[in-house]
Amino acid sequence: MGAALDRIHLLIEQDRYDQAEKELAPILEQNPMDFQVTYLDTYLSIRKAPKTAKAKVEHFLGLFPFSDLAFYLKAYRAFQVDLNQEAIKAIDEAISIAPNDPDHWAMKSLILMNMLDNQQALKAAEQALSLDAEHTQALNNRSIILSRLGRTAEAMENSSHTLHHNPQDSFSHYSTGLIHLQKGQHKKAMEHFQEALRLNPNNEAAKDGMLSAIKASNLFYRLYLQYEFWILRLNQKNRYAFILIYFIIFRLVRFMAGLSADSKLWLTPVIALLGLFALSTWILDSLSDGLMVFHRFGRHLVLPKQRVMGLLTLSFTILALLTFIGLNLAGYSEVNYVYALVFVGMAIVSGSLHYMEKPNLIGYLGYSIIALGAILNICGLVLGIPIDALLTPFFIGLVVYQISSIFRSNRIS
């Protein structure tokens, strides 16, 4: 049975889940209480469909409540569905049972990376490496974390070491590509992401990396990426502090611009740049997804929902520009900005909705804002119906949605 289980484990690692399930089924039927068999069955369920694997994980934990691997699988499944607090609690249980298992420390490092706790993630990765100096996952984690912390020279050295010992490891090429991307070297990053996908066509992280590298051929997106990588280096408290400081600066500049005609003349471009920067951080990623539809390779990497939301963001942005310019040329200078701002608001909402896997309360609010915005502009631009009564609920809804989205994106699960 050992050889058969080894083959099934290999099939799982190759993402050949249906074949693994087919070969595992008769063995599981004959050995429903066997540790290795039920472990593989649970692991397979997590790899194939983590959202529906909770029952299998709890069943395995019930059979073997004192096994570190049972808690490891619980942590792995929770990590896959972004339940970070549950994941960290489970992996700590596994470590308390088997503190010298490097796999457990590497998993803890991965979870902490997902929580953006880079310093603690680095400590966990180095603990794993103290137990196994050539642990591939821990080495890759360490490379990514060092890069996040701005220690790119160390990150690249660590990554080169990993690739030297594991040249056929897909994730090692992904982590190296990510470091190049953070250094602004999108072409070198693309080479490593391409190699990662050659070694494992189902490597979703490498697909995301390749998509970002293709987008980074645009200068504005490269600058946006550097901002995103900088934000990743901050802890949760500092991210909130940055948002608050930015808002205070924006309000202060606006106040100073209102003090005199001269100050307004000089500070209006500053206000415009600050507003444009904020807007770009909200819509640029989704806008780039919309543009990827026209890229012969990029179009295959964008997920269906991201493609739809990207096209909506692109459409709303174009409509905002056309509305502003068209109404200006037609002499409607007093109202042109209102309709354009409604389209901008719709673009902001669609720009963040493409991150949501499934609608929640914030998501439904976002879809409602888009629908209300469409009604507003159809009534005002097409039918000539006054829209004043609907503007207030639209912009209040937009502010509530955006604040909720910012807190949601910065909250650690």
UniProtKB/TrEMBL annotation:
Transmembrane segments: 240-259, 265-287, 308-331, 337-355, 362-383, 389-407
Protein's UniProt name: Tetratricopeptide repeat protein
Keywords associated with the record: Membrane, Repeat, TPR repeat, Transmembrane, Transmembrane helix
Source species of the chain: Croceimicrobium hydrocarbonivorans
Coiled-coil annotated spans: none
Keyword Ligase: no
Annotated Gene3D superfamilies: Tetratricopeptide repeat domain
Keyword rRNA processing set for record: no
InterPro entries listed in its UniProt record: TPR-like_helical_dom_sf, TPR_rpt, Ycf3/AcsC/BcsC/TPR_MFPF
Ranges of the TPR repeats in the UniProt entry: 170-203
SMART domains in the cross-refs: TPR
